[in-house]
Specification:
This protein has helices at 38-49, 61-70, 84-91, 108-118, 129-143, 159-169, 191-200, 242-248, 262-269, 315-327, 343-346, 349-355; strands at 29-33, 53-58, 75-78, 96-99, 121-124, 149-151, 177-184, 205-208, 211-214, 223-226, 233-239, 255-261, 288-297, 300-309, 339-340, 359-363. The protein is an alpha/beta fold. It has two domains: 3-153 and 316-343, NAD(P)-binding Rossmann-like Domain (Rossmann fold, 3-Layer(aba) Sandwich); 159-311 and 346-363, 2-Layer Sandwich (Dihydrodipicolinate Reductase, domain 2). It has a seven-stranded parallel sheet with strand order 3-2-1-4-5-6-15, sandwiched between helices. Strands 10-11-12-7-13-14-16 form a seven-stranded mixed sheet. Strands 8-9 form a two-stranded antiparallel sheet. Bound molecules: NADP nicotinamide-adenine-dinucleotide phosphate. NADP nicotinamide-adenine-dinucleotide phosphate is lined by residues 34, 36-40, 58-60, 81, 100-103, 106-107, 125, 127, 153, 155-158, 190-193, 196, 311-312, 315.
C-alpha cells in the first residue's frame, strides 16, 4: 500500500483543532476501524460528543477522504487488515480501538493483534456468534495477563441483553434458565448485517445442558412470550445470537435462550427489505425495540427489560459508555479488568444502564 495512505489525512488541516470542538484537549484518543459504516457514523458522533479524540480508519481512500472533510477534528487514516503497518499507524497514540468493520471474521483477529502491539484496549460490535465465540476461546487465556481489556460483541446484541441478564440475576449465583426475548417493530438491515448473517448461517449454537450445542434457527416453532407493557403477548421464535455466547461466559445457567418476534424476522428474510432510513437529525430510524430478559430459578422468576429506538444507533451510546468506563478504570475487579470479558462481568450493570439515557430500563 502506498505509504501516503498511512498518514493522517487531516494532519495539515486540523493542526490547531485536533483538541476537539467541545472541551479542550481530549484525555484519550479512541481509534475507530470501519469508520464510514452505518453504525460507525453514530459512533463517531457519540464518541466526539463525549469528548474523546478520534483516529478514524477504513479501507476505502475515497470514503476516508470524505470523512476527513466531514470531521476535521479527527485523525483520519486509510487502513486495511491486510496491512499491519496501516493498523499500527491508526492505533498509534490511542488508548482503545473500536472495531466496527463487519462481518468480523476477517477484521477481529488482525485488529486484536494490532491492539496487542499498540498496548491498547479493544472493543468490537459484532453480533456474530462464531466470531464472538472464537474471540473468547482463542484469546481468553492469551490475553488474561495482558493488562488490556477486550470486549467483543458490545452492541445492541451482546451487551444490552448481557447487562439486563446480570441485573436480573442480582444476588443469584446461578439460575436454571436465562431467556432473552427481542420485540422489534421492524428490521431494515444494513449491508453489514446481511453479510454477517450469511457468514453465521449454519454455524449457530445455543446453550443447553450447560454446553454450547449446534442449533438450526430455521427449524424452530413459535411460542408465546409475555412482553411487558404495550408489546403484550407475541409469538417469538428461538434464534442464535451473540448473547448466548456472552452471557454464558460469566453467568451460570445450563440453559440460555434467545427469541425474537416475527415482524423483524420476516423483514430479514425478505431480500428486498431496504436498509434503515433516518427520520431525525441524529440519523436514527423509526425502528423501536424492547429487550426482555427473564431468569428462572425453580419457580422463582426475575426480569429486566429495556426499550428504545434503532438497534444500530443505540449501539453507539453503549460503546461510548463502555469506552468511558474502561479508560476511567471503572471496571471490576479493582478498576482494572483485563482479558476477554463480558460487559456484565466488568461493569456495574445497573449503573451502566442508568447512564445510557438513549434507552429506558426496568426490573420486575
Ligand atoms: N452487536 C450489535 O448489536 C450490532 C449493532 C450494529 C452493527 N452490528 C454489526 O456491525 C457490522 C457493521 O454494521 P453496519 O451497520 O455499520 O454495516 P455497514 O454499514 O455495512 O458497514 C460495514 C463497514 O465495515 C467495513 N468492512 C467490512 N469488512 C471489512 C474488511 N474486511 N476490512 C475493512 N473494512 C470492512 C465496511 O467497509 P467497505 O464498505 O469498504 O466494505 C463498512 O465500512 C455488521 O456486521 C453488523 O451486523 C452489530
Amino acid at each position: 500500500m502506498n505509504t501516503d495512505t498511512n498518514t493522517d489525512m487531516n494532519a495539515d488541516m486540523n493542526a490547531d483543532t485536533n483538541s476537539g470542538a467541545n472541551t479542550g484537549a481530549p484525555r484519550h484518543t479512541v481509534a475507530l476501524f470501519g469508520a464510514y459504516g452505518h453504525t460507525a457514523r453514530f459512533l463517531v458522533d457519540t464518541l466526539h460528543r463525549r469528548g474523546f479524540g478520534l483516529a478514524l480508519g477504513g479501507r476505502d481512500p475515497e470514503r476516508m477522504r470524505a470523512l476527513a472533510e466531514a470531521h476535521p477534528y479527527a485523525r483520519v487514516h486509510v487502513a486495511s487488515v491486510d496491512d499491519p503497518a496501516s493498523l499500527d499507524a491508526l492505533l498509534a497514540g490511542t488508548s482503545l480501538v473500536v472495531n466496527a468493520a463487519g462481518p468480523f471474521g476477517d477484521t477481529t483477529p488482525p485488529l486484536i493483534e494490532a491492539a496487542l502491539r499498540a498496548g491498547v484496549h479493544y472493543i468490537d460490535i459484532t453480533g456474530e456468534q462464531p466470531v464472538t465465540r472464537r474471540t473468547f476461546e482463542t484469546y481468553r487465556d492469551r490475553l488474561a495477563d495482558s493488562g488490556l481489556l477486550f470486549l467483543p460483541a458490545l452492541g445492541f446484541f451482546g451487551a444490552l441483553p448481557d447487562l439486563l441478564a446480570t441485573l436480573a440475576m442480582g444476588d443469584w449465583a446461578a439460575a436454571d434458565e436465562i431467556s432473552v426475548a427481542f420485540a422489534l417493530d421492524s428490521w431494515h438491515p444494513t449491508e453489514g448485517t446481511r453479510k454477517a448473517g450469511a457468514r453465521s448461517a449454519g454455524h449457530r449454537v445455543t446453550v443447553s445442558g450447560g454446553e454450547l450445542v449446534p442449533f438450526d434457527d430455521h427449524q424452530t416453532d413459535a411460542l408465546d412470550w409475555e412482553f411487558p407493557g404495550e408489546a403484550g403477548t407475541q409469538p417469538v421464535r428461538a434464534l442464535g445470537t451473540a448473547d448466548q455466547i456472552v452471557i454464558s461466559r460469566h453467568l451460570k445457567a445450563p440453559e440460555v435462550r434467545a427469541y425474537m418476534n416475527d415482524a423483524p424476522l420476516s423483514d430479514l428474510r425478505d431480500a428486498g427489505t431496504p436498509p434503515p432510513t433516518a427520520v431525525d437529525e441524529d440519523g436514527r430510524s423509526a425502528q423501536t425495540f424492547l429487550v426482555d430478559v427473564v431468569v428462572r430459578r425453580g419457580a422463582e422468576r426475575r426480569a429486566a427489560s429495556a426499550t428504545g429506538r434503532d438497534i444500530y444507533a443505540v449501539t453507539a451510546p453503549l460503546v461510548a459508555e463502555a469506552v468511558a468506563r474502561v479508560l476511567d478504570s471503572r471496571t471490576a475487579p479493582h478498576g482494572t479488568a483485563t482479558g476477554v470479558r463480558a460487559p456484565g462481568e466488568v461493569f456495574d450493570a445497573e449503573d451502566f444502564l442508568a447512564a445510557v439515557t438513549d434507552l429506558t430500563y426496568a426490573v420486575r
